[in-house]
């Protein structure tokens, strides 16, 4: 199995290189230059040309790309134009917030989805199954940001149970209080994210359970005299989890992408909110860095999916 | 045919499936007996209800979608009256089943050893070590060359023939009295077929089990069976010893089946073809001989209105009286009633 993982990891390297070239070229293709807005507008154009020249911006693209990559490996992604701060520091703090929220959402999602999916599949056609299906269809039909806005309105404003902005209250002191306050702030966005995220998993799992239920190996197990409860536990559950496992890695990236909505609606200071703000302020260095990070996270997500799948499914391990 | 050694007595069993809210008989009024040390072959073309009969005996039907009547007397217990829990005492322990498709009948995610020992988990008190030894012994018995290695493998690492051997090992793990083999050789190539049939016969000799062998392959039947029951459209149309059915077939369907087998001495002739199809469940005629539409040259008067079984020789029974008047169109003499 380690061979599979290693092989899969090696495949990722050219993917990252291609991704970085694409991101770099797209950034280059964006209009404008980095100096026009940041120095005195009355400056002599010759002066700007001089700056461009000493900063290597007239070099051929591969030369510039190479410089960029070298800086990248030194942890230097440039300065944000808007915040006048190194991009790495800017993203660093927010990445932790986003990861924290994404992780919490994912745990909640699976905690809801797995029992619901298995239950619906097992009791196919009965009332609880119908209720779960109606829930998934309805939720699936509503755009995610609408769910967020409705959720924030009901639980944040009308009922006032949860904070509606930020990641921590300003008066939080001490370890426990800080932790509690952070948790309190991600509770509602996490729950709403999970509410939306469960839909796909429940639907997948439900139909997988129904498929497995009628499969030949389940019939074999029944003819061995295995009680129905154990058939679900030992045979149906694990086989039905295969596509979900394949999904798991991608769902991590899905959550990070979803964080763009969640963080914007909740004004939660994470990478998603930073991304949206950077786009509206044309903060090119930040956008480039974030696109690269999101891209790499996507690649890691697919890598994770493949690894998880090779753990749970013996058939796809490379010998 | 009722003797003391019949440990399985199937009496008047019908199984009906629900299609669009209505029940249709897939098998109707089946009577069969199985003895120890006997191979009973059930023969018929696709869709005649052979597998339905097998799954009915095993109790594998969803009670919400099927209606089963009659009695399956297994060593004094009517299996059809058992609940799921009671049935599980028999399945795997006293009745073993071998399935048609070895490629999908094993759980792809479990090692072979786990899948074989699972049946012992529920029916024996063996220790883990004893179970392991028994697994190796079983794999040996079904003719697997390197049992230690195979036990550790996953189903996808085995060939079709080996998987079928594993399935047989599962079915015989608890030395059942009855083994139901539902087309055990259909998915395998011919050389493997012969080996699998040998394995089955050896096991039967060793355990004194009764075997119900379900197949559409008359060659397999001729090679292995002691007694034969021919099924058509959910009914048994003829049953008797293998010699009786093969040497003096009576029912038009049996005769047509045998005639449609390739023979060495007439290999230049065209094969005989039974025209038409088995009627679908919804279109099954309520009355009359169900085979009549496929032998249209036999006058309607030759068939009984409600065909019953007639004993033509000790232990040899045929449904409907039409057999007395049946001739193939190319045979000499005219059909008279």
SS class of chain A: mainly alpha
Estimated helix fraction of chain A: over 70%
Total count of domains of chain B: 2
CATH fourth-tier homologous superfamily of the domain at 87-147 and 198-316 in chain A: MetI-like
Give the tally of β-strands of chain B.
12
> Mind telling me the C-alpha Rg of chain A?
24 Å
How far is the N terminus from the C terminus of chain A? 8 Å
**Helix count, DSSP H or I runs of 4 or more residues of chain B:** 10
Family (chain B): Belongs to the ABC transporter superfamily.
GO molecular function (chain B): ATP binding; ATP hydrolysis activity
Keywords (chain B): ATP-binding, Cell membrane, Membrane, Nucleotide-binding, Transport
Membrane topology (chain B): Peripheral membrane protein
Would you mind describing this structure in some detail?
- The complex is a heterodimer of chains A (319) and B (337).
- With 319 residues, chain A is an all-alpha fold.
- Chain A has a domain at 87-147 and 198-316: Orthogonal Bundle (MetI-like fold).
- Chain A contains 11 helices and no strands.
- The model of chain A has no long low-confidence stretch (mean pLDDT 83).
- By secondary structure, chain B is an alpha/beta fold.
- Chain B folds into 2 domains: 6-225, P-loop containing nucleotide triphosphate hydrolases (Rossmann fold, 3-Layer(aba) Sandwich), CATH 3.40.50; 250-325, no CATH class.
- Chain B is 30% helix and 24% strand.
- In chain B, the strands form 2 sheets. In chain B, strands 6-7-8-3-9-10-12-11 form an 8-stranded mixed beta sheet, with helices on both faces. In chain B, strands 2-1-4-5 form a 4-stranded antiparallel beta sheet.
- In chain B, helix 4 (128-141) packs across helix 6.
- Chain A binds chain B through residues 215-217, 219-228, 234-235, 238-239, 312-315, and chain B through 58, 60, 84-85, 87-93, 95-97, 99, 101, 104-110, 118-119, 122-123, 154, 156, 167, 170-171.
- Chain B: GO terms for molecular function: ATP binding; ATP hydrolysis activity.
- Chain B: Keywords: ATP-binding, Cell membrane, Membrane, Nucleotide-binding, Transport.
């Amino acid at each position: 199995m380690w061979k599979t993982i290693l092989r899969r990891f090696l495949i990722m390297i050219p993917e990252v290189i291609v991704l970085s070239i694409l991101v770099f070229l797209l950034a280059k293709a964006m209009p404008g230059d980095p100096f026009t807005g940041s120095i005195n507008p009355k400056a002599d154009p010759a002066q700007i040309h001089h700056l461009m020249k000493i900063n290597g911006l007239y070099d051929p693209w591969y030369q510039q790309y190479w410089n960029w990559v070298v800086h990248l490996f030194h942890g230097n992604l440039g300065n944000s134009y808007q915040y006048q701060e190194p991009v790495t520091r800017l993203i660093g703090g927010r990445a932790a917030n986003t990861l924290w929220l994404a992780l919490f959402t994912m745990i909640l999602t699976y905690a809801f989805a797995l029992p619901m999916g298995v239950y619906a599949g097992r009791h196919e056609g009965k009332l609880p199954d119908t209720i779960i299906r109606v829930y998934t269809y309805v939720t699936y039909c509503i755009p995610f940001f609408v769910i967020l806005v409705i959720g924030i309105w009901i639980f944040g404003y009308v009922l006032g149970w949860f904070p509606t902005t930020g990641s921590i209250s300003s008066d939080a002191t001490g370890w426990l209080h800080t932790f509690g306050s952070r948790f309190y702030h991600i509770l509602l966005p996490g729950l709403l994210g999970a509410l939306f995220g469960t839909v796909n998993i429940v639907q997948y799992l439900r139909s997988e359970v129904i498929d497995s239920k009628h499969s030949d190996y389940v019939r074999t197990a029944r003819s061995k005299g295995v009680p129905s409860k154990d058939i679900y536990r030992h045979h149906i559950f694990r086989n039905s989890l295969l596509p979900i496992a394949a999904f798991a890695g991608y769902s991590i990236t899905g959550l990070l992408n979803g964080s763009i909505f969640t963080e914007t609606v909740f004004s939660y200071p994470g990478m998603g909110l930073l991304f949206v703000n950077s786009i509206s302020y044309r903060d090119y260095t930040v956008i480039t860095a974030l696109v690269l990070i999101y891209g790499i996270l996507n690649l890691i997500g697919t890598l994770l999916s493949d690894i998880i799948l090779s753990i749970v499914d013996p058939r796809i391990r490379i010998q | 045919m009722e003797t003391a050694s019949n440990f399985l007595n199937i009496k008047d069993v019908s199984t009906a499936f629900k299609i669009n809210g209505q029940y249709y008989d897939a098998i109707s009024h089946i009577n069969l007996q199985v003895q120890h040390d006997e191979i009973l072959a059930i023969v018929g073309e696709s869709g005649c209800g052979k597998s339905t009969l097998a799954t009915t005996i095993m109790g594998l039907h969803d009670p919400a979608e099927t209606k089963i009547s009659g009695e399956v007397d297994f060593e004094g217990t009517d299996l059809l009256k058992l609940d799921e829990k009671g049935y599980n005492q028999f399945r795997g322990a006293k009745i073993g089943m071998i399935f048609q498709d070895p490629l999908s009948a094993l759980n792809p995610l479990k090692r072979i050893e786990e899948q074989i020992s699972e049946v012992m988990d529920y029916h024996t008190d063996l220790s883990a070590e004893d179970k392991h030894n028994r697994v190796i012994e079983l794999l040996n018995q079904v003719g697997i060359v390197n049992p230690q290695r195979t036990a550790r493998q996953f189903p996808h690492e085995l060939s079709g023939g080996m998987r079928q051997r594993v399935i047989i090992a599962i079915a015989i793990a608890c030395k059942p009295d009855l083994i139901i083999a539902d087309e055990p050789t259909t998915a395998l190539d011919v050389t493997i077929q012969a080996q699998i049939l040998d394995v089955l016969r050896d096991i039967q000799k060793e355990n004194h089990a009764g075997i119900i062998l379900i197949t559409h392959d008359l060659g397999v039947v001729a090679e292995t069976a002691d007694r034969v029951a021919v099924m058509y459209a959910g009914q048994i149309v003829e049953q008797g010893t293998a010699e009786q059915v093969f040497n003096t077939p009576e029912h038009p369907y049996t005769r047509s089946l045998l005639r449609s087998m390739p023979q060495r001495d007439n290999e230049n002739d065209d094969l005989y073809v039974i025209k038409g199809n088995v009627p679908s469940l919804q279109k099954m005629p309520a009355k009359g001989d169900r085979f009549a539409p496929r032998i249209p040259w036999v006058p309607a008067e030759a068939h009984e209105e409600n065909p019953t079984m007639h004993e033509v020789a000790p232990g040899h029974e045929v449904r409907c009286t039409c057999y007395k008047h049946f001739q193939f169109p190319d045979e000499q003499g005219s059909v008279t009633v």
